[in-house]
Amino acid sequence: MMPYDGCRRGALLAALLVLSAPAAAQDRPVFPPTRDVAVTYQANIAAAGVPHEIVMRYSAARDRARVDGGLPGYVLVDLKTRHATIVMEQMGMMMDAPPNAGVDQALVLENGKHFVRKGSDTVAGLRCTVWDVSDDDASGTACVTADGVVLRANGHDRKGRAGSLEATQVQYEPQAEALFWPPPNVHKVTIAAGPGGGKGLSGLLSTPAAAAALDRLRRGQP
């Protein structure tokens, strides 16, 4: 996905417009998707290190999501609990996403308060409804299919950080269960916030605690 410092988090949340599940009476888009799907996005986010291509996969039956792009690995999210896990297979490790990472919010689009229909459009060959979306911290527009796939999103937060995403490919097909769970050959590490704790994931990985954890993994110790 991306290094998770505040700027990148804010830009991604703005791009995804932080939609939510407000009062049932409010006219609103469906989210998350109601069936299995893999969506490839082109991203345009004003932050260094953000990937141009992001792939998001959803499993409707398991209520889980996976994001590939940006990290040397991928992010797994339980949409019910909002818990996110960063998996770096090549390094043989996984870790809980830092509380300030915003991964869960970006995926479940959970904080929107106001929704206004603005018409319809076609993106990646699919019809979608265009919505103006806003909350206390961000606003923008999103084009969402009737079954909950965000095809295009753009927005900005109160600090002026902006971003956009647009789907280039949408594949409706069953998603293998193994995609949404860490593989058995990775070890979970816990890295306490230290001198690098305020610098996002890249900062955390440069801390002495991270170095010690990686050294243990290299030596085959949990």
Secondary structure layout plus pairing:
Layout: H1 6-16, E1 37-45, E2 53-59, E3 64-68, E4 74-78, E5 83-88, E6 93-96, H2 103-108, E7 114-123, E8 126-134, E9 138-144, E10 150-157, E11 162-171, E12 187-188, H3 200-204, H4 208-218
Parallel strand pairs: 6-12
Antiparallel strand pairs: 1-2, 1-11, 2-3, 3-4, 4-5, 5-6, 7-8, 8-9, 9-10, 10-11
Gap between N and C termini, in Å?
Answer: 26 Å
Strand-pairing-aware structural class: alpha+beta
For the biggest sheet, the summary is: 12 strands, mixed
Question: Could you tell me the radius of gyration in angstroms?
Answer: 18 Å
The CATH architecture would be: Clam
What's the total helix number?
4
Strand order of the largest sheet: 7-8-9-10-11-1-2-3-4-5-6-12
List the uncertain runs: 1-25, 194-207
Oligomer: single chain
* Element-by-element helix/strand order: HEEEEEEHEEEEEEHH
Helix fraction? Answer: 10-25%
Shape from CA axes? globular
Averaging pLDDT over every residue, what do you get? Answer: 73
Structural domain tally: 1
The beta-strand count equals: 12
Which percent band covers the strand fraction?
35-45%
CATH homologous superfamily classification: Lipoprotein localisation LolA/LolB/LppX
Main CATH class = Mainly Beta
CATH fold-type name: outer membrane lipoprotein receptor (LolB), chain A
